[in-house]
Each structure stands twice: as C-alpha cells, then as structure tokens.
Amino acid sequence: MEQRPKKLLEQVQDVIRLKHYSYQTEKTYIYWIRRYILFHNKRHPKDMGSPEIEAFLTHLAVNENVAASTQNQALHAVLFLYKEVLKQDLDLKVDAVRAKKSKYLPTVLTKEEVLLIIQKLSGVHQLLVRLLYGTGLRLNEALNLRVKDIDFAQNQITVRDPKGNESRVTMLPESIAEELKIHLQSVKIIHNQDLEKGYGSVYLPFALERKYVRAKYDWIWQFVFPSGSISKDPRSSEVRRHHLHESSLQKALKQAVRQAGIQKKVGCHTFRHSFATHLLQNGYDIRTVQELLGHKDVKTTMIYTHVLNRGGRGVRSPLDP
C-alpha cells in the first residue's frame, strides 16, 4: 500500500526531532506555524513570503498586544518553517510593527523572604526551591537533572544545555547535599520497583537510545526529580517515568507565598534572580555570576546591578534626617 505524503506540520515535527530540539520547542513552533497558516486562511506557506510574515507579526503586536518576546518566538517559528523545512530563502527584512520591549526589573526576594517561603514548603518541593535558590538553576534545568549530573565528591552540578550544545558547572550547596543523597535513595527504590514491573526506562537525548540500547534503564540516566507516576511518552509512545511536571512546583510555590504573606509576584524564576542579586551583594565578580547563570552575554547579567540600585539604594533621601 502506497504511503500517503506527510502533512506540512508532520514534516515540521520530523525536522525538529532530527535537530534534537526539546519537546517544548516542538509544541511551541508547531503552535505558531499553525497560527500563521490559519491567519492567512490556510494558504500554503510556500505560496507566501515576507509580506505575509509581516502581516502576521503586525497582527500579533497591534491586535493581540503580545509581548516582544512572544512576537519573536512566533517569528523564529515561521522562519524555521521556511529555512529548515521548505528550504526556501526569504528576504529577512521583515518590516512588521514590532511589539514594544518591556523595561522591567526582575522581582528579587530578600534572604529572609526566601527562607520564609522555604519554611512553608515540604518534601520534594522544598528541596527543589532550595536547589533553585542555592544554584541559580532555571526550573527546567533542575527538572532535567540526571543522577550522573550531581557530583557529591566535587560538590558541583553539571547543567546540560537542552540542545546539547553547551554545558556549565555550578556549585552544589553543602546545606542540601545530605538531603539530596537521601532523596536519591528513595528515587532509586522507585526505579528498582519500576524495573521489576517491566518499566524503568527514561528518555535519552540525541539518539543515545539507539546507540546504547540498554542505557535508558541505567540508574545514572534517571531523573533526579521523577514524576509520581509513569506515563506514555508523547514522542515514542513508550510508557516510562518522566521528570516531575513543572506545574506541580508552581502550584505548591503559589500556596507557600500566600501562606508566607509576601506581597510580591513570586515564581520559580524569582529564586534565580535572587541568587544572582545576593551573590553580587556579597561582593562576587559579575563575570563569575555570569558563568554560574550560563548567560552568553554579560549584558544580560548586568540587569542585576540595576536591581541593586532599585529604589535609590545607597542614596539617602532628603526627607530623612
């Protein structure tokens, strides 16, 4: 039986997986490409070009009032379609109305506020927040940690880039090292139980699963923060245990902030902001902080120097005696 030609979005999916992009990137790109096609009444992208991209981006900025980062995300998705899937060169001078970049300073907690929130958490959620604040990891970086990434002997954590291009090393806080070891003991028990039931595999990046057939069952490749249940992998359809879902911590954190009575907008990323700011307050060099955060450009890290000066800190008000 002759196989039907793949639909455009299926082709997009294939190319994304060939390039080892994350599942989140896959969902995001397909979402924006579908939006682009529907906006132009289901015309095929090969029959469109820069004017249609401009119209779509302008619509997002003017009619939907999206943030600049959201508009850029849509642009990257559509350009990926043309460049990587359709192999079609475009005039990249896209003259769309661009969404205005917001100029805001990140929310930063005091150390006392951080500790107060941590006290309102328990179990794996408390350990995760302590890890976020103690290392400066992004939430997805913490959730994607594998057993082999934690080096207790050297007191360090290796953070792998989702696309596999770069890695960096950050410290393992001594104050959570023993608790993390105990946590991993309980995780290993769960892994052994999964193996006994015929499961126990984990997703491996960059085609390692094909190269090392049994590696997906190895302890060192298991997630440090596994999900409480096994589920079907959306890519391979294999039933396995993935890492803890981000919404689990987000919900617990929201409740803890409310219980702590802190009147700030606090998310998981707030602890990364607080980590960087507190290091600078303690006199660490900005290049060191940049390296720990994994920023490619020091200008990104420089925002925390502005946070230090927020509210005229260091300048005495003329109202005060």
TrEMBL record:
Q: Name one GO molecular function term.
A: DNA binding
The record places domain Core-binding (CB) at: 1-86
Whether DNA-binding counts among this entry's keywords is yes
Signal sequence span is: none
Tyr recombinase domain mapped to chain residues: 104-317
One GO-annotated biological process of the protein: DNA integration
Q: Which UniProt keywords apply?
A: DNA integration, DNA recombination, DNA-binding
Domain of life the protein comes from: Bacteria
Keyword Plastid appears in the UniProt entry: no
SUPFAM superfamilies attached to this UniProt entry: DNA breaking-rejoining enzymes
Name the record gives this protein = Integrase
Natural source organism: Hydrococcus rivularis NIES-593
